[in-house]
Design goal:
The structure is a single chain. It is built from 17 helices and no strands. With 379 residues, the chain is mainly alpha-helical. It folds into 2 domains: 65 residues, no CATH class; 250 residues, no CATH class. Helix 2 packs antiparallel against helix 3. 32% of the residues are buried.
Length: 379
């Protein structure tokens, strides 16, 4: 059981024990985190804070890296509003939805990713170090003329056998690992990449100054997300991303409002819970619009991020006075739509991966058989 599953189990168990009438101290003492040392330490920290007379949210806020700001804010609102039980149940439902979508996404991507990794290993490791040496030795024995496109391919094979090429591959892999696992170098790499992407005509603004307040890595992710949402890929991958982000935002906003929070105070935790840097970087704009007297749907429509159906629902729910309930229902609906959108996007990716693998294998077979055909023709 992974960390998100244990967090879901923690919230579910705590909500059940609270609804059964157990005290908060007794509930924390009864809960078993199993083999997860991080969550066990977090549970002990929370219990110590509660025994000292502090609140559950205070204890959770001390567990940096375990509970998100959205989760802490939801519990804090529950403590000052309708109760901790409702806040815990809402968090458990939110974690369960995230886990279900993540598992579906992982299952859907398993085959395409396997095929692409197979092609990568075949192209980078198996061919240059296992196939090409034997193939070049066979060519030298058959004395096949190396002319035209075949001569170009053979020259490329011989290039892969040179010490300089192999040393370059090792250095590139080492640099990739260094950049991937070293946060400072990763930041420098993303900053350089952002400068290049910002100069692309038509797409540069997605990676421009709008994201300057965040780290380069976050800016790159936000730019790619905006590119998916606004570019030609928006109908496929962009729809899945849009529905998923909006579903998380809507569910988190509903949990905050049900816990007794104000809309202006709920936007920031909901934006954090959505996992979208685009939404987070516009939450101040939406909050200021509401404080200036604008309606909720007008404030949410200003950044141009959310789908029109979501904005229409917000308008209807606000007019009927059921904003928190409407956000919850629409969050569930969007989660289902995100699931369908992920299936659609991956269903388009699978045949592309199969065609790519087939094309690579077809080229390899053609190259391998060509010398034999030339030898037969020369007889």
């Amino acid at each position: 059981m992974g960390r998100p599953e244990r967090l879901m189990w923690f919230f579910q168990a705590m909500a059940t024990m609270q609804s059964s009438g157990l005290s908060l101290v007794r509930s924390l003492e009864s809960f078993d985190m199993g083999s997860d040392l991080v969550l066990r330490k977090a549970s002990q920290t929370i219990l110590a804070e509660v025994l000292n007379g502090r609140s559950l949210s205070t204890g959770m806020s001390l567990c940096v890296g375990v509970f998100s700001p959205y989760q802490v804010a939801t519990i804090r609102l529950g403590e000052s509003g309708p109760g901790v039980e409702a806040a815990l149940a809402a968090l458990a439902e939110s974690e369960q939805r995230k886990i279900r979508l993540r598992q579906q996404f992982q299952r859907s991507l398993m085959m395409p990713v396997f095929l692409l990794v197979l092609v990568f290993l075949l192209s980078v490791l198996f061919l240059p170090f296992c196939i090409f040496p034997a193939y070049l030795q066979l060519l030298s024995g058959l004395q096949v003329p190396e002319v035209g496109w075949f001569g170009t391919l053979v020259a490329g094979m011989r290039l892969t056998q040179s010490p300089i090429f192999q040393l370059s591959c090792i250095l590139l892999l080492g640099m990739f690992g260094f950049v991937a696992f070293h946060s400072g170098q990763r930041e420098n790499f993303c900053r350089s990449l952002l400068l290049v992407l910002a100069k692309i005509p038509g797409y540069g603004p997605y990676f421009g100054g709008l994201y300057g307040a965040a780290s380069s890595w976050q800016s790159l992710i936000a730019g790619l997300e905006a590119l998916f949402l606004s570019g030609s890929l928006g109908e496929v991958w962009g729809r899945a991303i849009l529905y998923l982000r909006t579903a998380e935002f809507s569910a988190a906003l509903s949990a905050q409002l049900e816990a007794g929070g104000k809309l202006t105070d709920a936007l920031r935790p909901a934006a954090v819970a959505s996992g979208s840097l685009l939404i987070f970087m516009h939450h101040l704009q939406m909050t200021e619009a509401i404080r200036e007297g604008k309606k909720a749907y007008e404030a949410l429509a200003a950044p141009g991020i959310f789908p029109p159906m979501f904005l229409q629902m917000i308008e209807t729910a606000e007019e009927t006075g059921t904003l928190s309930e409407g956000c919850k229902k629409y969050g569930q609906f969007l989660a289902e739509e995100a699931s369908l959108a992920i299936d659609t996007a991956v269903s388009l990716l699978e045949p592309l991966a199969v065609l790519f693998v087939g094309a690579v294998m077809g080229v390899l077979v053609l190259v391998m058989m060509y010398p034999l055909v030339m030898v037969v023709q020369a007889l």
